[in-house]
Amino acid sequence: MKVRLKWVEDASFLAQSESGHAVLMDGPTEGGGRNLGPRPMEMLLMGTAGCSAYDVVHILKKGRADIRDCVVNVDAERATEDPKVFTRIHLHFAVTGKALKPELVARAVKLSAEKYCSASIMLGKTAQITHDYEVIEAD
């Protein structure tokens, strides 16, 4: 896997993935940026949420669950001293479907957290990572 990052101006950088996608990252205005894109550390959290949500949806679909939606809300804290690593990350999954069994959702979240999500497992080396979920019945 390869990524290319190019400085654009001030605190703006354009990241390009090997798969051909680009994301503009920028800093806050008080840090010389123009607030045109997410911060690099926000990208880490977004990637972690995406990695874990992908796992949960894939596991549930593979088990033939009638899943309709999956939203992950992430709340994190960082160290106050440099390097300001993440010290606590909480992922809350809101999974919507028809007659979803809570124990299957719990199993999917656990498998992602403990076995499949490379991002959260890697970040778990410095941060305490917790997960919870809610099951929402689809209309």
What does this structure look like?
With 139 residues, this protein is α+β, with helices and mostly antiparallel strands. It folds into 2 domains: 1-38, N-terminal domain of TfIIb, CATH 2.20.25; 40-137, GMP Synthetase, Chain A, domain 3, CATH 3.30.300.20. It has helices spanning 40-62, 102-116, 118-123; strands at residues 3-9, 12-17, 22-25, 66-78, 86-98, 128-137. The strands form 2 sheets. A 3-stranded antiparallel sheet has the order 1-2-3, with no helix packed on it. Helix 1 crosses helix 2 (102-116). The longest helix has 23 residues, at 40-62. The termini are far apart. This is Putative redox protein. It comes from Formivibrio citricus. It holds the Pfam family OsmC. InterPro entries: KH_dom-like_a/b, OsmC/Ohr_fam, OsmC/Ohrsf.
